C-alpha cells in the first residue's frame, strides 16, 4: 500500500500538469485563432483600400500627363488625343474639362453625359491630402462611378471618371462569402461600390473592420457575421493544443540546457565572424526570350553541420538587433568576389541586393558601397540596390537625396514589393528610382483575378510614365509569364527558371544557357548555309 502512494502522487501531479497545460493550450489556441482571424480581415480591408488608392493614383497620373501635354482644352484635336489616352487605359471611362466650380465644359465622350443622374458642385467634392485633387461620386444609370478632379491653374480642372469594378471587392475567402460584405465609400458616406449579400439576406450579428486612406477621402468597410467566425480557420486549434502539451514536456529539457545557451543574437554574431551567411543567386530573366539578364542575391545561413537556415528564421532578428548592416556588406562582398568574372565579361549583367530603409539612410552608406564595388573592380551601373516598400521610409526627402546621389555615381535603385507596402505611387515617383518590382502577391493571382491584371497594367503604365522599368517576382508558371507579357512586363524572376541557387549551381545554370544559345546559333547558321 505504501509503495503505491508515490505512484499515485506522481500520477496526480502528471494529471494536474496535463490539465494546466491543456487549459493554457485552450486559451492560447482560442486567442491565436481569434488574432489570426482579426489580422486576416484587417489585411483584406487593407487590400481593398490599397487597390482603390492605386486606381486613384492611376487616374491622377493620367490627368497630370494630359495637362503636361497641353491637352486641357475643348479643341477637337485635344479631345481626340484624350480619347486615345482613355482607350489605352481601361480603368478610366471618360475625361472631362470643367470650370473651377466643377461645372462641365466638355467631355472626351460627350455621350457619357447622358448617363449621369446628376453632377455635384465643387463645394460637395472632398479634398485629398493634395489640395488640388478632389474626389466625388458620379451617380450614373447602371452604377455609380468615381470622379477624380485635378486643378489645372485657377480657372479650370480636368476630371477622370473611374468605373468601379466589382472584382475590386471580390476578395472574401470562400467560407465568408455568404456571411459578409465589402463596401468602398467616400468619407462623407457616399457609396462607390460593394460586394454584398443577396438582397433577401442580412447580417444579424455583424462585426465591422474599417480602414480609411491617409491620402484620399476613401474608406473601406468589411462587415462579417460573428457566427461564422466560430468555425472559420479553426483547424489550428488541435495543432496548437498539441504544441502546448509538447512545450510542457520540453520545458524541463530546455531549462536544463538554458545555462549553456547564450541566445540567438550571440549565434548571429558567431555566424558573422565565421562567414556562415552566404549569398544565393536567383536569375532575373527576359520574359520573352528567357535570357538571364542578371540576378538578385538572397541570404542563406550555412551552419557548420551543413544545414541551411532559410532567411525568415534569421533576417527579422538581424534587423531588430542591428546586425543586418554587417550581414548585407558581408553578402555583397562575397557576391562581388564570386560574380566578378561574369560582371567583367558581360557589362549588361546586373547584380541586385536588398537594403532595409534604415541602412540606406544611415551615415556612410553611399561611401561604403562605392568603396566595396570599386575594390571588386566592377562597374557601378551593374549594381542595383533594392529598397523594400514593406518598411516605410520615414524621411522621403532624405531618401530621395540618397537615391539621387547613388544614381549620380551610376548605381541603379529598385523599389521592392511594390503594391503591398506603404508608399503611394506618387511617393515612388518622388523617390526617383529606376525600377519597380511587382510583388509575388500579384503574380500569384494574375491568372485568376481580373482586378489583379488591371492593377499590374496600371503599374506598368505608370512605370512607363515615370521612365522606370518593371520586374515581376515569384513567377512559377508559363501561364503567369503570358499574362505578365500581355500587361507589358519585360523581366521577371522566380522558380519557373530557378530557385535561389548557391554560386556553383548558378554557374552551372549560366553555362547551360550559354551552351543552349551556342547550339541554337549553330543550328541557325546551318540552316542559312543550306
Automatic annotation (TrEMBL):
Note whether Membrane occurs among the keywords. yes
The record's Pfam families line, in alphabetical order, gives: CSS-motif, EAL
UniProt KW keywords? c-di-GMP, Cell membrane, Hydrolase, Membrane, Signal, Transmembrane, Transmembrane helix
Q: What is its main location?
A: membrane
Topologically, how does it sit relative to the membrane?
Multi-pass membrane protein
Question: Which EC numbers does the record give?
Answer: 3.1.4.52
Quick one: signal sequence residues? 1-24
Q: Which reaction does it catalyse?
A: 3',3'-c-di-GMP + H2O = 5'-phosphoguanylyl(3'->5')guanosine + H(+)
- Record localization: Cell membrane
Which PROSITE patterns is this protein grouped with?
A: EAL
Report the protein name in the record: cyclic-guanylate-specific phosphodiesterase
The organism of origin for this protein: Bradyrhizobium campsiandrae
Amino acid at each position: 500500500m505504501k509503495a503505491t502512494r508515490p505512484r499515485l502522487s506522481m500520477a496526480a501531479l502528471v494529471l494536474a500538469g496535463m490539465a494546466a497545460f491543456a487549459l493554457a493550450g485552450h486559451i492560447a489556441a482560442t486567442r491565436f485563432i481569434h488574432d489570426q482571424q482579426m489580422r486576416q480581415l484587417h489585411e483584406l480591408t487593407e487590400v481593398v483600400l490599397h487597390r482603390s488608392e492605386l486606381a486613384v493614383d492611376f487616374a491622377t497620373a493620367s490627368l497630370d500627363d494630359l495637362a503636361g501635354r497641353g491637352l486641357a482644352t475643348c479643341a477637337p484635336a485635344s479631345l481626340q488625343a484624350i480619347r486615345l489616352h482613355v482607350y489605352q487605359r481601361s480603368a478610366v471611362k471618360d475625361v472631362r474639362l470643367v470650370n473651377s466650380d466643377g461645372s462641365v465644359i466638355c467631355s472626351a465622350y460627350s455621350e457619357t453625359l447622358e448617363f449621369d443622374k446628376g453632377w455635384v458642385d465643387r463645394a460637395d467634392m472632398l479634398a485629398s491630402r493634395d489640395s488640388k485633387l478632389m474626389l466625388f461620386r458620379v451617380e450614373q444609370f447602371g452604377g455609380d462611378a468615381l470622379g477624380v478632379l485635378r486643378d489645372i491653374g485657377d480657372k479650370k480642372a480636368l476630371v477622370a471618371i473611374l468605373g468601379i469594378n466589382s472584382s475590386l471587392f471580390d476578395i472574401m475567402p470562400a467560407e465568408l462569402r455568404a456571411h459578409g460584405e465589402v463596401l468602398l465609400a467616400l468619407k462623407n458616406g457616399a457609396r462607390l461600390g460593394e460586394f454584398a449579400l443577396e438582397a433577401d439576406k442580412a447580417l444579424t450579428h455583424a462585426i465591422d473592420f474599417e480602414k480609411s486612406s491617409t491620402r484620399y477621402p476613401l474608406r473601406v468597410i468589411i462587415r462579417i457575421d460573428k457566427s461564422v467566425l466560430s468555425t472559420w480557420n479553426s483547424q489550428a486549434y488541435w495543432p496548437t493544443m498539441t504544441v502546448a502539451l509538447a512545450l510542457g514536456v520540453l520545458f524541463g529539457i530546455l531549462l536544463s540546457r538554458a545555462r549553456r545557451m547564450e541566445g540567438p543574437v550571440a549565434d548571429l554574431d558567431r555566424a558573422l565572424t565565421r562567414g556562415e551567411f552566404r549569398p544565393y543567386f536567383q536569375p532575373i530573366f527576359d520574359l520573352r526570350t528567357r535570357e538571364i539578364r542578371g540576378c538578385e542575391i538572397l541570404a542563406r545561413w550555412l551552419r557548420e553541420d551543413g544545414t541551411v537556415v532559410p532567411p525568415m528564421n534569421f533576417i527579422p532578428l538581424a534587423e531588430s538587433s542591428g546586425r543586418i548592416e554587417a550581414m548585407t556588406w558581408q553578402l555583397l562582398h562575397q557576391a562581388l568576389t564570386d560574380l566578378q568574372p561574369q560582371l567583367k565579361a558581360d557589362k549588361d549583367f546586373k547584380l541586385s541586393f536588398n537594403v532595409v530603409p534604415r541602412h540606406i539612410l544611415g551615415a556612410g552608406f553611399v561611401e561604403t558601397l562605392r568603396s566595396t564595388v570599386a575594390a571588386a573592380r566592377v562597374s557601378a551601373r551593374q549594381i542595383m540596390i533594392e529598397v523594400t516598400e514593406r518598411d516605410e521610409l520615414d524621411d522621403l526627402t532624405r531618401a530621395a537625396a540618397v537615391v539621387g546621389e547613388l544614381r549620380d555615381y551610376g548605381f541603379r535603385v529598385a523599389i521592392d514589393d511594390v503594391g503591398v507596402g506603404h508608399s503611394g505611387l506618387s511617393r515612388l515617383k518622388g523617390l526617383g528610382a529606376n525600377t519597380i518590382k511587382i510583388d509575388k502577391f500579384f503574380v500569384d493571382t494574375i491568372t485568376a483575378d481580373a482586378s489583379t491584371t488591371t492593377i499590374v497594367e496600371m503599374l506598368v503604365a505608370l512605370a512607363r510614365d515615370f521612365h522606370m522599368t518593371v520586374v515581376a517576382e515569384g513567377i512559377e508558371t508559363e501561364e503567369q509569364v503570358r499574362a505578365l507579357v500581355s500587361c507589358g512586363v519585360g523581366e521577371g524572376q522566380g522558380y519557373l527558371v530557378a530557385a535561389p541557387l548557391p554560386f556553383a549551381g548558378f554557374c552551372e545554370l549560366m553555362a547551360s544557357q550559354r551552351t543552349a544559345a551556342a547550339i541554337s546559333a549553330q543550328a541557325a547558321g546551318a540552316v542559312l548555309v543550306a
